[in-house]
Amino acid sequence: MPEMAAMDLFVVPTFAFKLLNGFIIVRLDRRELVWIAVTNSPTADWIARQITKAFPWESAPRNLIREGDCDFGSVVRQRLRAMAFGDKPTSIAVAERFRRTTDWVHSPRMPGPHRHFSEAHLRHLLRAYASYYNASRTHQSLDKGAPVHRPVQLMGGLKSRPILGGLHHQYVRI
Q: How does pLDDT run across 131-141, given as a tens digit for each residue?
């Protein structure tokens, strides 16, 4: 698993009924969100550039799992071969679990100002969530740890810190 990652695209409707596309890459061993990007029109060239930005040439995992749809065209396959990835197309949404954690983006529970977003605003929200997801959000498969290892806090009073307008919370000891 340390040498595997998964990438996927997902669609987010805006308040003005435009469709934006999010792109994510997740390392499967620690569930770490490696890369997140947003665009209004994902092309194969754009996806290939995102892969290069996510993985400097020397740090790329051996295998990259992706959906077998047409968004990942020949340009993406050529980039994966050039970077020595083992390209593993599949018929299932490989990053579906992460995508479900971002359903808050268009949830009616989302605080008012967050529902009126543009491409830049969605990028900002997803980066804030990615920081929370990697550093604070616990995962049962990681023995209730976060993807980015952090030391256990044993001393101090418990304090709650709101994330994304209070939609999520991080609990720390002060």
A: 887 887 766 66
- State how far the alpha carbon of 90 is from the alpha carbons of 52, 69, 87, in Å: 21, 9, 10
Give pLDDT tens digits for 62-94.
888 777 666 677 888 888 888 877 776 675 665
DSSP letter, residue 153 = P
Beta bridge pairs of residue 139? 145
CATH number, domain containing residue 132:
3.30.420.10
Name the residue range of residue 84's domain.
4-173
Which among 165, 169, 55, 61 has a CA at the least distance from the CA of 113?
A: 165
Domain count for the chain, please give it. 1
Residue ranges of the alpha helices (H) in 64-162?
74-82, 96-101, 119-135
